[in-house]
Amino acid sequence: VTPTLSRLADEGVVLHNYYVSPICTPTRNCLMSGRHPVQTGLQHGVIRDSVPNGLPLNETTIAQMLKKLGYSTHMIGKWHLGFYKPAYTPQRRGFDTYYGYYTGNEEFWNHTSPCWSCGNYTAVDLHRATPTSEMPATDKAGIYSTNLFSDEAVSVIQGHDVSTPMFLYLPFEAVHGAASCDPDCYHPAGDLLQAPDFYINQQSHIKDMNRRTFAGMVAALDDAVRNITETLKDKGMWENTVFVFTTDNGAPASHFNGAAMNNWPFRGTKGTLWEGGVHGAAFVTAPGRLAESRIGGLSNQLMHATDWFPTFVHLASGNASHADELLQDLNLYGVNAWQSIAEGFPSNRQQILHNIDPIGSTSAIRVGDMKLMIGMGPAKWWPPANFTAATAAASMSSGHDLVTANGILTSPNRLSGLGASSTVYLFNITADPEERNDLSSTLPEMVKELTQVLHETESKMVVPCRYPDPDDKANPTLPGRSGVWEPWLPDDPEYAL
Predict the structure, then answer these.
(1) Out of 24, 115, 181, 465, which one is annotated catalytic?
(2) Any catalytic annotation for residue 24?
């Protein structure tokens, strides 16, 4: 299914101990700002289409930082960091050009996005923009978004002046589910599987139709990456490229009765703080920049999505002192991970705050090998659809539980010191990456120690969470509006062009 991605991973370093947020907006916040979602108020859920919210304008984006270092900057694909005022859109956050959609998920073919929990309407969400211009792309219905974005990336690369360094951020819609007003926009379908018949038919050996279609979506993405990397080679740019491939969260493995996708062998799904929600898939390929001993191997050093920001700045500046000077006032959560990735040096990161969500009353932190979770409900393991109980059990690293197709549940422990309703789990993730052996009752002192670290982190980092209600004025189908998702409020004077 993925000959290109598999080859690129073999030519690079797979990040085996890499973490993201459990859902879309917070991880994109990490990538763009190098700051943790608890530092920006985006730690709960996602930014819905009609909600007046976004990555705060006082945050410096990686595109803005790379512009300072002389880079041309381009973005293609999914933004999902707010657009209710023009200043929040990607073309105003440091990107020279933008081609993509502002919302969280849309239909792959007609590029419409339904309003979520705010009304019975949908609208086109596809835009071509620069910092001083914005034009809705309303003539692309019938073109599959993976192909659309791949073709745009090829065009950007072909038109690039190689005397200037380039940063291309390309968050595909794939392999996210599509959003559609079926049966109606009050109750939109948010996880439809859509792929061209050509790619679906390639996977005819897969019996389950949902799994077959999902595999077709992945195959189309793989072809897109092939086209982009081949264009970089044809342009003479590949040998000076750092290529990063990363997810933004785990798979919603429970959808389609567990038959289409999974996070196996990790526990849990997208939207949770279990490893299945936050343990990310990623690799880095960088011709001539990786130690020979690293190529084709795994990096077991701890890494977080916020680390890309300082890592890219250090790579782009070429001077550690200059990079540190540029970063010193940003109060980043991320740390420079390049020497860890490229040469295998010990990581600069010793802990990861997975989240502190005051609305969902959940939190989790990892310090060294140990992970503490508070308030998270129990979760299942979702093995691949073709696994039998016997093959699933044989493939488990621990082997002390038998997994069935429906998964198993464990009984959570409760710690009175954190409140009667606080569900607490403690795992040694290094020894038990599948989170099968809850240690909270046998290591109560470790629970208290990590709880204290969590509270100290909260007092130092967490800002109030912003999760406003939908705004009726956002409706693009109102009289006098364009029928396209776009900013609906004017910029504040200090940000107006």
Answers:
(1) 24
(2) yes
